[in-house]
Amino acid sequence: MLQRAAWARITVGGQEVAAIGPGLVALVGVAEDDTPEAAARMAHKTVRLRLFPGGDRPFDLALAQAGGELLVVSQLTLLGDVRRGNRPSWASAAPPEVAAPLVESYAAAAEAQGVSVRRGQFGAHMALTLENDGPVTLTLDSAALGTPRRHGR
Question: How much is the pTM?
Answer without folding.
Answer: 0.91
